[in-house]
Structure formats: C-alpha cells, structure tokens
C-alpha cells in the first residue's frame, strides 16, 4: 500500500515538499513507517487522522498521516523538579505535565503511613540533579510528553506526601509505565534518607541500599 505523509516545519524544508508518498506492506504500523522513512524514533511524533499515535499503532491506506516535529515554544519534557521543605502540591504537578500531545496523565504519591511522621534528609543539590536525570531518561524510554518530580525534606506528617512523580504520554500504558519507573528509580538512586518518628518521639533510621554506580 502507498501512504501519503504530510510534513511540517524543518521536515518539510529538508524534503522540499509538504507531502511524500511512502510504500508500506499491509498491516504496517507506525514503527514501520518511521523505519521506511529513515526517521529515528522519538525525533518526531506521528499523527494518524489528527490523533497522536504510538509506534505500535496501525497505518492503513487512506489514513491522514502526518509527521510532527518538536513544536516551537514547547517546554522541556522534564517540566518540574524540586527538593523542598514545603508541602507538595499534587495539582501543581498534574498541571505541569499536561500537554497537547498527551492522552493520559498518571501521578504517584508516596505518603507517610503508620508512624506520626517521617523526617527526611537529602544531599539536595545532587538529589535535584539526579531527579532531573532520571526524568530525562524515563521520558525518553517511555515516549513521555512530560514528566515532573518533587521530593520533600524535613518533617512529613502522616498521610501527607513526601514524594510525587507525574508522567504524561499519548497513551495510558506509557504513562503508567513511566510513573512506575520514575518512582522506582527515585527510591533507588536519589541521595535522600529518612527517619521514622514514633508516637513517643523515638527515632528509627530506615535502612536502605547503596545506589548504583
């Protein structure tokens, strides 16, 4: 089958045309289209019938297909990173990752449970840099539209969040996977430590593991 693909901005300029025709086998998917056009995954987004499509989406003859390069004025994929003593704002992180290309937004909150409070300490400068690096790597691996990460330090009372990660993506599977990867890596790699504070004020340090080198 032959599919007509619309091109915009730099892609149009490089091709010298606003449309190209691409021959694909029956049953082809977005990944096959990108391979046939020799375009690296995640360097642009494919839209099918005016909806953003993942690499596994089918491409059919007669579809309106377009390649969408990074949009002018768009924010970075890692929208918000903070290590702070202030209470964390779930709504603010959700707003930070909303994006026209995203059909799903997933947030995870890690909250204090069982004990009256947790006391967090961080190597803040390194922790923020690590959170940003984690965000960039996870966003690239899961085709995220945007991610955000925040971790609180100091005293965090019971039922309040100590860490929030947020991910948006074109589809819910990618957003769920990205949010899980974000929190798993934050817990394993960020230089942040915690102490449990009991009902009588007794303090118990929570043992952890060495981060990967």
Strand segment tally: 13
Q: What fold name stands as the CATH topology of the largest domain?
A: Aldehyde Oxidoreductase, domain 3
- Label the CATH architecture of the largest domain: Alpha-Beta Complex
Mean pLDDT: 90
Order of helices and strands: EHEHEEEEHEEHEEEHEE
Q: DSSP strand (E) fraction?
A: 25-35%
The termini sit apart by: 49 Å
Q: Biggest β-sheet: count, sense, barrel?
A: 5 strands, mixed
- Please give the CATH class of the largest domain: Alpha Beta
> Strand order across the biggest sheet?
2-1-5-3-4
Query: What is the CATH superfamily of the largest domain?
Result: Molybdopterin biosynthesis MoaE subunit
Shape: elongated
Helical residue percent band: 25-40%
Describe this protein's structure.
The protein is of the alpha+beta class and 213 residues long. The protein has 2 domains: 2-68, Ubiquitin-like (UB roll), CATH 3.10.20; 78-205, Molybdopterin biosynthesis MoaE subunit (Aldehyde Oxidoreductase, domain 3, Alpha-Beta Complex), CATH 3.90.1170.40. Helices cover 27% and strands 33% of the residues. The chain is built from 5 helices and 13 strands. The protein has helices at 9-15, 30-36, 90-97, 124-141, 172-189, and strands at 2-6, 19-23, 45-48, 51-53, 65-68, 78-84, 104-111, 117-122, 146-152, 154-157, 161-169, 192-197, 203-205. The protein has a 5-stranded mixed beta sheet with strand order 2-1-5-3-4, covered by helices on one side. Strands 6-9-11-7 form a 4-stranded mixed beta sheet, sandwiched between helices. Strands 10-8-12-13 form a 4-stranded antiparallel beta sheet. Strand 12 (192-197) and strand 13 (203-205) form a beta hairpin. Helix 4 (124-141) runs antiparallel to helix 5 (172-189).
């Amino acid at each position: 089958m032959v599919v007509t693909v619309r091109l915009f901005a730099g892609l149009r300029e490089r091709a010298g045309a606003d449309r190209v025709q691409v021959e694909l086998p029956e049953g082809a998917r977005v990944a096959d289209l990108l391979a046939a056009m020799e375009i690296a995954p995640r360097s642009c987004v494919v839209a099918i019938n005016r909806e953003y499509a993942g690499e596994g989406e089918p491409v059919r003859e007669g579809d309106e297909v377009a390649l969408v390069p990074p949009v002018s004025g768009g924010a970075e994929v890692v929208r918000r990173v903070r290590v702070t003593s202030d209470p964390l704002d779930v709504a603010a992180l959700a707003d930070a990752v909303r994006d026209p290309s995203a059909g799903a937004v997933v947030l995870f909150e890690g909250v204090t449970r069982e004990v009256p409070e947790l006391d967090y300490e961080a190597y803040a400068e390194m922790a923020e840099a690590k959170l940003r690096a984690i965000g960039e790597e996870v966003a690239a691996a899961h085709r995220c539209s945007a991610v955000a990460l925040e971790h609180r330090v100091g005293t965090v009372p019971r039922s309040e969040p100590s860490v929030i990660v947020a991910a948006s993506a074109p589809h819910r599977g990618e957003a769920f996977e990205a949010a899980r990867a974000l929190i798993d890596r934050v817990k394993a790699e960020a230089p942040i430590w915690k102490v449990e504070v009991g009902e009588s004020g007794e303090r118990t340090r929570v043992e952890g593991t060495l981060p990967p080198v």
